[in-house]
Here is the input.
Amino acid sequence: MLKSFFILCSGADKDIVATCSNGEQNKYAGIGATVFFTAVMAFVACSYALYTVFDSVYMATFFGLIWGLLIFNLDRFIVSTIKKRDSFMDEFIQASPRIVLAMIIAIVISKPLEIKIFKKEIDTVLLKEKNEMAIANKKQVSDYFKTDVDKNQASIDSLKSQVNAKEKEVAALYQSYITEAEGTTGTKKMGKGPIYKEKREAHDAALKQLDSLKVTNSKIIAEKETKGKSLQADLDKKVTDSQPIIDSFDGLMARINALNKLPFLPSLFIMLLFLAIETSPIIAKLLSSKSEYDFKQEDAEISYKTLIEQNSYQRELQKKTDASIYDEVYADIKSDKELFNLKKKNATEIMKIQSENYLAKFKS
Here is the structure.
């Protein structure tokens, strides 16, 4: 039963194969097994590839099954349409388009399986790319908010510098009236004279201005710092919101690109393996000599072709014979005087009716 199934997969004529030797049947069973297992691998490869896209086992399995059946049908068609000829060059020319198609199928099948085989290495490449994308994203978002954050911080620094400058001014005035009282600077007279009072009044006025400036600037600084925290929160939120997009950067295209960044040689060997499997039935047919099945198939085709040619010749001969008979029949009818007079009478009546109709139309 399994042997019959694989022969069916090979696309060979089961009626002809059934009359062949056991060795010939085994040959086509082997070809059919190759076609079948290639389709199974195509199903597995496509299912895994689509699972990375849809994240659904049922959907990936459904479309993977369709893809596997498609590859099975294509391989079966490719193998079954290659026929042995008398010249190897003729066979090779006949098989060339099929070999190209088989190569394309092999590459398409092998790529998803390569992704599965090198999954750990690909995950490492993707992790590195995700980290780089996260850093670049954070820098891009920071640059986006940089102008507002810098302006806000510059405003806070300016307000603080005003307070610091005023504090230095008050400290200098304080030092001025103290040293005036001590007699170490200014008039160099110890005691609280008129100059001391002027300096003390200047200091007290500056101190009041400092207190007022601190109250005013503190309020503005508090508002600016609140705004700065809000800007930082917006920045952090922007980074957080975009992180899931970066984390989900592991689709089919991303994995194919990551695979291309790995060493080429292991990937090449896997692709060559599938290429050899996919083209092996075609190569086997090209390299093998004409066998029992090929002769019987050729004999059946020639017999059918001969039958078609005979039927075509008989139809052509029948057509010529019928034409010759009808030529003679109508020649005899042509010489019949009674039929001639009848035709002449009918034609005269028709011409008379046409003439009367024309005259009536002309009068109107």
Summary: The mean pLDDT is 78.
